[in-house]
Specification:
594 residues; alpha/beta; five-stranded antiparallel sheet
Length: 594
């Protein structure tokens, strides 16, 4: 049997799991799965353009974009009435006004449910992609806080400050798409002789090149020796529009220790323009140290700043403060207990800030060493020499005074805070108000302060946070949980949540994974919460009481805690007494043995 070769572009991980499970039960398909939404999904499809797939399976807006971008058939996974009902039931857990929005495939099913079940639902239909943002902005103006929608609606909603619950596809819809794809492929099987001849001629000239037609579709790929396949495709896509305007252009990028040169030329066939893009690889003239991470708003890699915590910090009063702070160019200091989502709050400020068209640079002050720190302050490729970017100094108080003084001197000499948006974070502790670094940021750099409350201080927000978390966990784990039994929800509200959002997210992952029905039961919640550690080491042991039957790492940790206590929790004097740097002390404190 000739198997049909299918490429699945799943907008979210949960759908990928469903498709993978279905394909394993069939012997008539060979399935390759990628996870990517909208334009990211298009780039993933283009990456596989030279692998001769018979068809692509995708969903919603991603499927529509794929139809315009690729030449092979695209089969759309439909949304069933049950899919819509499940999302609506989840939204009922959210304690605020919500609306069901989407294209007619969604809203027609929602209207049917409204009639059959006598629901009073606010339902609005998008006629085109141009309708999405204006309609959602009107809903926000009319005090709606949540929308139930497909991927496009959910994405735009979160961009403009609305929370969302994604309508995910179930097993039945996914299985139907396989059948339709196989039927279509078997009825077509087209042969493109002219295209194959063109490929054979083209492959004889260059080692690594791409050919695009005049509509911007990847027509052919011949990349044979590149280790950085995905990076090159993403870079070419960024510059493609310009590359198609005139020939003999040249772009260069550095990836790891290599310099990639991208040049273009035009060819014409039957009055159609083809853009030939050649890629050459050489050793870079400069080896850069990887002392920081770079995140681009439209990057395909969204793992660094996923939305799990962002949604929790975009509810209630914290949301309002973040929105106001995001509009300014002023530096911001984020303070909160461990696990309150400081890094995610920084990502929201970046995404909604004035420089979100440029990268976000994150510098982890708790892990950077002295050599890397000096390179950061002096190297001409350092992000500190950029203009109109966002720079996030994570755990700034982990720096020793000498390092921070160098940084503050750099601020003064280079006008860094005037050229860029600066964000700092610090974990709340008893000595934070007396810390010299915090004092300098507050009174010399005039940072705005964003305090992230502990979860125990915002229990009223918990049902809304849980609704958003469950929705995201459903899409990533392929589950179909709707919410909590009422008593189970009360147990969640009464718990202390000493480790805040970190603890909540970890516990909820267990609950969603273990839940057997549509609702998480009180017995399951009680069991999982009873396993949680509710106490922390408030009074570290004296040196004389340090147990010597532990590992070396554990003994070192006890010693550090004892010296900290004797030094009144002063980290600078503790580090000096132990003969280690402040950043090394910070790392050891935050890597406590279990």
């Amino acid at each position: 049997m000739n198997k049909v070769k299918l490429l699945a572009i799943a907008p979210y991980e949960g759908l990928a799991e469903i498709l993978r499970s279905i394909s394993m039960k069939r012997d008539d398909v060979m399935l390759t799965i990628e996870v990517g939404d909208l334009s990211e999904g298009v780039q993933l499809a283009k990456k596989h353009a030279d692998e001769n797939f018979d068809a692509i399976i995708s969903r919603g807006g991603t499927a529509e974009l794929l139809r315009a971008a690729v030449e092979i058939p695209v089969i759309e996974i439909s949304i069933s009435v049950y899919d819509v009902l499940r999302a609506i039931k989840m939204a009922e857990l959210y304690d605020a006004r919500f609306a069901v929005v989407g294209f007619s495939t969604i809203t027609e099913r929602a209207k049917l449910l409204s009639d059959l079940l006598q629901y009073k639902l606010d339902i609005i239909t998008f006629e085109s992609e141009e309708d999405v943002e204006p309609i959602l902005r009107r809903l926000k103006e009319h005090q709606y806080d949540l929308v139930v929608s497909d991927r496009i609606g959910s994405t735009v909603a979160e961009e403009i400050g609305l929370n969302s619950i994604l309508i995910s596809s179930g097993n039945e819809s996914a299985a139907s798409s396989f059948n339709r794809a196989i039927q279509l492929v078997q009825s077509l099987r087209p042969l493109h002789k002219e295209k194959e001849i063109f490929k054979q001629i083209s492959t004889s000239h260059f080692d690594n090149f791409l050919i695009y037609n005049e509509n911007g579709k990847l027509w052919f790929s011949h990349i044979t020796a590149l280790d950085y396949h995905d990076t090159i495709f993403n870079t070419v896509n960024d510059y493609l529009e310009k590359l198609q305007t005139f020939p003999s252009q040249k772009f260069e990028i550095i990836v790891d220790h290599f310099l990639f040169t991208i040049t273009n030329d035009f060819y014409f066939h039957n009055d159609e323009q083809f853009t030939l893009i050649k890629i050459t690889q050489k050793d870079a003239p400069l080896i850069q140290e990887d002392v920081f991470s770079i995140y681009n708003l439209d990057s395909a890699d969204q793992t660094i700043y996923d939305d799990d915590y962002s949604s929790a910090n975009f509810i209630g009063m914290v949301r309002k403060q973040i929105e106001e702070y995001s509009r300014t160019h002023l530096p911001i200091l984020i303070i909160g207990e461990s696990g309150t989502g400081k890094e995610k709050a920084a990502s929201i400020i970046y995404k909604k800030g004035p420089f979100n068209n440029n990268p976000l640079y994150t510098i982890d002050c708790a892990t950077i060493n002295e050599q890397q720190w000096n390179s950061l302050l002096s190297h001409y490729n350092s992000p500190l020499y950029n203009v109109q970017t966002t720079i996030y100094f994570k755990e700034i108080i982990a720096l020793d005074p000498k390092q921070f003084n160098k940084l503050f001197e750099f601020f003064s000499q280079s006008n860094l805070a005037q050229r860029n948006r600066l964000i700092f974070s610090a974990t709340l502790n008893d000595t934070l108000n007396n810390d010299e670094i915090i004092h300098s940021l507050k009174y010399k750099l005039s940072c705005l302060q964003l305090f992230l409350p502990a979860l125990r201080e915002r229990i009223s927000d918990l049902p809304s946070i849980l609704a958003l978390y469950i929705n995201k966990l459903n899409t990533s784990m392929g589950k179909q949980i709707i919410g909590f039994e009422q008593e189970a929800l009360e147990f969640m509200k009464e718990f202390t949540w000493e480790n805040n959002l970190d603890q909540l997210h970890r516990v909820l992952r267990e609950l969603v994974l273990l839940a057997e029905g549509s609702y998480i039961s009180k017995d399951l919640v009680k069991k999982i919460l009873s396993q949680e550690t509710r106490t922390s080491m408030v009074n570290p042991p004296k040196v004389s009481s340090i147990p010597l039957n532990k590992t070396l790492d554990e003994i070192n940790y006890y010693i550090i805690q004892a010296v900290l206590e004797e030094e009144g929790q002063n980290k600078e004097s503790t580090a000096k007494r132990l003969g280690i740097s402040r950043s090394t002390l910070w790392r050891k404190i935050n890597s406590a043995p279990s």
